[in-house]
Structure prediction request, 947 residues.
Amino acid sequence: MPAPLLEVNNLVVEFSTDAGVVRAVDDVSFSVAAGETVGLVGESGCGKTVTGLALLGLVPTPPGRLASGSIRLDGQELAGLDDSSWRSVRGRKVAMIFQEPMTALNPVFRIGNQMIDVLRQHQRITRRQARAAAIEMLAKVGIPAPDKRIQEYPHQLSGGMRQRVMIAMALSCSPRLLVADEPTTALDVTTQAQVLEQMVRLQQEFGMSMILITHDMGVVAQSCSKAMVMYSGRVVEQAPVTELFARPRHPYTGGLLASIPRIREQRIPELPVIEGTVPDPLNLPEGCRFADRCNKVRDYCRLAQPELKPIGRADSKVACYVPD
Amino acid sequence: MSPTDPAKPLLQVRDLHKHFPVSRGWLRKRAVLKAVAGVNLDIAAGETLGLVGESGCGKSTLGRAILQLQKPTSGEVRLAGELLSGLSGPALKRARRRMQIIFQDPFASLSPRRTVAQIVREPLDVHRIGTPAERRERVEYLLQTVGMRSNALNRYPHEFSGGQRQRIGIARALALEPDFIVADEPVSALDVSVQSQVLNLLAKLQDEHGIALLFISHDLAVIQHVSDTIAVMYLGRIVEQAPAMEIYRSPQHPYTRALLSAIPVPDPRNNRHRIVLEGEVPSPLNPPSGCAFRSRCPLAAAVCAEQEPALQPTVNDQQHWVACHFPGAE
Amino acid sequence: MNAAAEAMQRRHGDSLWNKAWRKFRHDRVGVVALLVVCAYAIVALGVVLGWWATGWADISGPKWAPLSSEHWLGTNIIGQDIFSRAVYSTRTAFEVGLIVALGATFIGAVLGAIAGFFSATWIDEAVIWLMGVLDSVPFILLVAAIAYSLQDSPWAMHIAMIATFWIGTARLVRGEVIKLKGQEFVESAHAIGLGRMTIIFRHILPNTFHVLLVQATLSFVAAIKSEVILSFLGLGVKDGMSWGLMISESTFEVLAGYFNNFIAASVLMFGLVMAFNMFSDALQDALDPRTVK
Prediction:
């Protein structure tokens, strides 16, 4: 098996608040192979976005800091880089797109100029060449009449179009890895489907790897080959997508899958739920962080945190003492 | 005219319009945005109507126009026979006891500087219901009903999670024992595991109190669980309406079909055919002639540009209404 | 997204005020500034209660006496004790500052909130028109006009300052209210049948308190500074003593080479204004809901 494109080991990201230090990402390790799409799933506050930001050196510092761990991308260690080194990595090797495309685009500049700036920052090309490249990229992400659209301001575009522009900008320097943070969450269902399909197509065309951060298991099922489930700052399960959905090992994954609203043949009296709420990050339990909401909890679950360990024949791992 | 219930419905909406004047450019050309363009609805007591559509289709405006939070441009709204459109002052205030709203954003819908007790109690204070001691008791009871502990009383909204805040919002809406509640995307800002908790709670409370519910959502999967009837809205109009199970079993309007097929299914082995709609929702300032959906419709023909299809029952089912020239066609 | 921010928000039994106070306490400059302001306030209170500086108008020594144990800062051109006069002026400064800050903030809050709530109606237009008119009259001219029309009333200066200072507050509050009135908690207040005025004053205005508090401190400082200028020009304090009057008196002394009067008034004023400004900055940081640390 070839060396993975991205290897993250024991990543810890902390935020200091005046009520104490919060570990938003706690000892997270994973790898992404070249050309692979990995889903990073979890609910708000689980640390999935912070993990994504850490991969681009974008954790707001202070109050946040990368406390320990290593991030190796394409053979280069990224943890501990200084600002200017990060700038040369961002865009060319790893790029990110965000949930809300309106806030990520500068409202006072035409989208063409914003794209040209990005292109010329990383490549020695003329404005005219950059403009041609920008138009080509816009066409690739499925924007009709790109030579006209390039003249427009962000507010003149619909949400779906803006997200496409963001994707075009992120891909314009052909990064090896794209981190997409809830790229379709702010979009309508019909647009969501279009954008998602386009992203998968482009990922294959460019042969890049992708980390898809989302709360939506449906999105993961449709576009990822592997998925990691995060809960309260830790990865609780990691498995090939078919395996994860067919046989969730962690009770949280199981509960999450069951509670997704889905269209059913018959109406059921009550939707399955996971009772309770996520633990307070300032006041975490000693043992398994899911223990209080788990229906299979044993006494020893509360003593120490379970490690992420391989399970079964497929390339799966789970952090649970009593996996399914 | 509309898919009316033979029994006298609690809420009747007839030919409701809500237009917004919009000024464009420095010449201030006046244009009219028809957010709601002629909607008819009936909701019986204790029944839930699910209203589904994409952002900008006018579903939230419709909910607010029914509640008179935004004055309708024209049309009638009747709650238990009383004509709401046109009420004002004390009469409107009295009518507000019977109808409430639950909002989407649990972080914006509760006043940040008031305690939970003050927030839930306020409707009782406004309408002078009971003695202060009775009010206090009722607030405690309400919080209990929505599954909050009584130590929540003197705390502030920002101390709670999204799901808990949504419960507080529900308690406030229930305080006046309304007959009718508009729930505007009540779970779309919540995490999946919390979403089902709140949906179950809403379904339970509605059952217990016999409330008529207008449940607004963009998510056909969420809406299925709570609704008896589902109405699909596109550019200010209802394009299809049917009993909940029926609409999933045999959607008649091409837009409903596309919506259903676009839902991401949490099953990686599912490779079902997806109908990808062309283009985007047209601007409501300048909707297409005839059928508003024709610009994105795979079935569009010449007649669709000329004539706006009326919402009428399908041949097989008097309960299933659709506004399409080619209903059911593939 | 930010788990840290959320964790911080979920502390129990915590109003927004407690949170702001916790943040403020960590701002050392702000705390020191607040202590300095408090010290000044105690001095002013002492003057009001007659504890000290009672002999500010007495001629208690020779003219231009040097610094001594009897006259800590010497005496002025007619032999009055400069220290007592400077201390007494602290009271004047607080009186002017407080009256103007309260008046301007109150009017600014009420008119700004009403204009914002009824934005794009004639009510809003009327308030904007009033702000525009008052804003276009040069400040000194306005004071002179008001002083003249009030027949040399001692309140002319206060009224003139309130009449102009409320405008800035009103503009900010109006903007804030326009933002707030579209929020869902305001809509829900409509939905339960609350009247419009109740909604404005119970639900919307309290959410602009952070703006009001900061604006009040800024008006306070501006009033003290304006008082000095106006008194210097003879348009300000009519009876009593103030730093502005002291500086005005000192013009002859400075020409003759005696700086005590001038320095005492300037330094005391500078200290208060500086401390208040720094306190105001710290307050703004602490109250700003966007800066979560």
